Amino acid sequence: MGKAIAIFNQKGGVGKTTTNINLAASLAMKGKKVLVLDIDPQGNTTSGLGIIKKDMEYTSYELLTDDEVDIKDTIVKTTTEGLDLIPASVSLAGAEVELVKMDGREKRLKNALDQIKDKYDYIFIDCPPSLGLLTIKLSDGCRFGAYSDTM
């Protein structure tokens, strides 16, 4: 079972994305299977891992807001062996408004990750610079016997 690690802080520019990318890449280079989930609408983790955001059909936005999207369809391979990514898009900026009216919104991310958590040693979640629904409720719901901490 993978360990889920949400890296978040309400302030921008404190190194959340840099920490996420470096930890994930380092562990993958050590032979671990790592998934990075980008839930920051800026999508800097997505870009930082070499993925072109506009080319993505499915992102973390669709994963969180569309019950018809399978998590496996959102995962893309990076150029680093053992490192996969669920990319972000600017559409996430409106996700909080949509999620507010959804039943079980706090568990949507956990339920999706439960389907694939056994395929990974680590799952890193790069959160937006805020303490909104995407950061607090969704990341908090991801504690499946793992680790979550504020940097």
Q: How can the largest sheet be summarized?
A: 6 strands, mixed
Q: So how many helices?
A: 6
The order of strands across the largest sheet is 3-4-2-5-1-6
Structural class: alpha/beta
Determine the strand fraction and express it as a percent band: 15-25%
What low-confidence regions span 5 or more consecutive residues with pLDDT below 50?
A: 141-151
The count of DSSP E runs of length 2 or more, i.e. the number of strands, is: 6
Instruction: Please give the share of residues in helix.
Output: 25-40%
What sort of overall outline do the alpha carbons produce when their principal axes are compared? globular
For the termini, the CA-CA separation is: 23 Å
Query: Radius of gyration over alpha carbons?
Result: 14 Å
Structure in a nutshell:
With 151 residues, the chain is of the alpha/beta class.
Description:
By secondary structure, the chain is of the alpha/beta class. It is 30% helix and 16% strand. The chain has 6 helices and 6 strands, in the order E-H-E-H-H-E-E-H-H-E-H-E. It has helices at 16-29, 44-48, 60-65, 95-100, 108-114, 134-140, and strands spanning 3-8, 34-38, 76-77, 83-86, 122-126, 149-150. A 6-stranded mixed β-sheet has the order 3-4-2-5-1-6, sandwiched between helices. A hairpin with a 5-residue loop joins strand 3 and strand 4. The two termini are 23 Å apart. Residues 141-151 have low confidence and may be disordered.
